[in-house]
Amino acid sequence: MSKNVSTAVARLRKQQEARAEAERREAEERQTMLVALGEVLEAAATSPRSRWHAYRERPLADLLVAVGLEEARDEQSGGDDGAPGDDASASEGVGLGEPDQPHGAPWG
Predict the structure, then answer these.
(1) pLDDT bracket for residue 75 (50, 70, 90)
(2) Considering the chain, what percentage of its residues have pLDDT values greater than 90?
(3) Cα–Cα distance for residue pair 92/90, rounded to 1 Å
(4) Is residue 58 left, alpha or beta, with left meaning phi > 0 and alpha meaning psi from -120 to 50?
(5) Residue 16 buriedness (CB in 10 A; 0-12 / 13-18 / 19+)
(6) What's the pTM value of the predicted model, to 2 decimals?
(7) DSSP conformation letters of the chain
(8) Cβ contacts of residue 61 below 8 Å, gap of 6+?
(9) Measuring CA to CA, how many Å separate 17 from each of 5, 20, 26?
């Protein structure tokens, strides 16, 4: 019986360690995304030569699509109703340096 308990305890510890590691990785990815987003916003606000500067006069949704935090909405489908959403995809580690940034840097 004690062998079964020991096995169960060992399995539980492994699961706890795996969960803690996954949470650590998620927090690290979120922090990386937040730093990159901050750099995009800083470039939009202060650097007229930045590609992000053009988003100063455009809707926030356009910037979020450009950095990959939201998907483009079809104009005919009605788009956003303006209500805050529960969009979990924004925190799923989506990189900001994707499709049209050849160097992977969103703030260039």
Answers:
(1) low
(2) 49
(3) 6
(4) beta
(5) exposed
(6) 0.54
(7) -HHHHHHHHHHHHHHHHHHHHHHHHHHHHHHHHHHHHHHHHHHHHH-TTSGGGGGGGS-HHHHHHHHTSSPPPPGGGT---SSPP--GGGGS---SS-TT-TTS-TT-
(8) 70, 73, 80
(9) 18, 5, 14
103 token code pair: 């160097």
Contacts of 44 (CB under 8 A, 6+ apart): 50, 52, 53, 55, 56, 63
**Cα radius of gyration (the chain):** 20
Q: Judge contact between 64 and 75, C-beta under 8 A.
A: no
Q: For the chain, give the number of residues.
A: 108
